[in-house]
């Protein structure tokens, strides 16, 4: 078996955000188009009020599954934000699973459906047959492939694993504390929970992540977690990072 490629997470600057002066990091959307629209409107209002010279929005991944409007969320994200605001899109474990399903439906399908894939399929107009022996995974994959607009495929395949900016590292899930930032496995950036969450390691950057649902955003010296379970709580969280420090924008507040 080949050894998984190691990723230097610190080497993920973005050309779109090279001269950014403020980052708006948006947590896990999970098919909640209504909350995405609300948080983006709040971000636009904040940009007008705070007047950062070069604002950039960084979405932390998990755009699909669980909520009712995965297709509509991707459609909105694949459309320019307006007013020249740059955006960076990271890859979450749910996008990773969706892409795996398109490549290997029988292997990835059961777990994907269990954790929200059914809702994602339905948002594309693909129904999952209720059969005692389970769905025909290849037929289901083919139906999704036919329903996916080309812009959505391009969006999913262009997602980034990390984004580094001014002492902060934005990823979906976290880092493996047994490894330095410059030698991470791609899967950990999208999937890890423990031992990352309990680690007190100083990576030389503060990690901003989603992936793990918390009642309130978690601020620790080495990480900030902002997945507030939007798909069921109604609270989608955005962390604003600038030279003035950090602050929060949330829906439903």
TrEMBL record:
Boundaries of every Calcineurin-like phosphoesterase domain copy: 23-213
A single Pfam family it belongs to is Metallophos
Where would one find the signal peptide in this protein?
Answer: none
User: What is the official name of this protein in its record?
Assistant: Metallophosphoesterase
**Record InterPro entries:** Ap4A_hydrolase, Calcineurin-like_PHP, Metallo-depent_PP-like
- Source organism of this protein record: Sphingomonas colocasiae
